[in-house]
């Protein structure tokens, strides 16, 4: 597929997601990075977003709960270019009933070439990058060209 460029803004749209056993770990990470997070637009799946907002006071746009379709809502936002990066503390040792949705979310994040942190170390690398506070050009699929080639 042909590629095009999308420019991420300096103030990123950041998705925050965590499986149940990793919600405390994500909360700890968010508290540690609260100052940086405050200058970005935050989204989260329902249970995680409500917990983070309540515990930190951060403004977070909460979608519905992941197992109820929140993972798919987030995937749609990624496809629309409305999410710039995702911090997803997922539990690699416990299967979840909505595992196909989780895989689809990670797949769509890869298709649309957004940075994804699946653990604390990667989240720290992303948040300590100079690119976090800058406009950044990324390559994404050129969907319009794809449609034009099909007509």
TrEMBL record:
Write out the GO MF terms. Answer: methylglyoxal synthase activity
Q: Which CDD domains match?
A: MGS
Gene Ontology biological process terms from the UniProt entry? methylglyoxal biosynthetic process
The UniProt entry, under InterPro entries, shows: Methylgl_synth, Methylglyoxal_synth_AS, MGS-like_dom, MGS-like_dom_sf
| Any matching Pfam family | MGS
Q: Which SUPFAM superfamilies match?
A: Methylglyoxal synthase-like (SSF52335)
**What does the function comment of this entry state?**
Catalyzes the formation of methylglyoxal from dihydroxyacetone phosphate.
User: HAMAP family recorded for this chain?
Assistant: Methylglyoxal_synth
Reactions that this protein is recorded to catalyse: dihydroxyacetone phosphate = methylglyoxal + phosphate
Annotated MGS-like domain ranges read 6-151
> What SMART domains does the annotation carry?
MGS (SM00851)
Per the UniProt entry, the Enzyme Commission number(s) are 4.2.3.3
Q: Where is the active site?
A: 71 (proton donor/acceptor)
Keyword NAD part of the UniProt annotation: no
User: GO cellular component annotations, sorted alphabetically?
Assistant: cytosol
What protein family does this chain belong to? Belongs to the methylglyoxal synthase family.
Instruction: Report keywords, A-Z.
Output: Lyase
Ligand binding (substrate)? 19, 23, 45-48, 65-66, 98
This one is known as: Methylglyoxal synthase
């Amino acid at each position: 597929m042909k590629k095009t460029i999308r420019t991420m803004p300096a103030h990123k749209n950041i998705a925050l997601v965590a499986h149940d056993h990793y919600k405390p770990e994500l909360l700890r990470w968010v508290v540690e990075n609260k100052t940086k997070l405050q200058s970005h637009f935050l989204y989260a799946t329902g249970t995680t977003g409500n917990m983070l907002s309540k515990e930190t006071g951060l403004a977070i746009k909460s979608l519905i709960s992941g197992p109820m379709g929140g993972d798919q809502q987030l995937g749609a936002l990624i496809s629309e270019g409305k999410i710039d990066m995702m911090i997803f503390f997922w539990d690699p040792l416990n299967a979840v009933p909505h595992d196909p949705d989780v895989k689809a979310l990670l797949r769509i994040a890869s298709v649309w070439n957004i940075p994804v942190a699946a653990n604390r170390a990667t989240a720290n690398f992303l948040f300590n990058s100079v690119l976090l506070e800058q406009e950044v050009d990324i390559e994404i699929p050129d969907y319009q060209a794809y449609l034009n080639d099909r007509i």
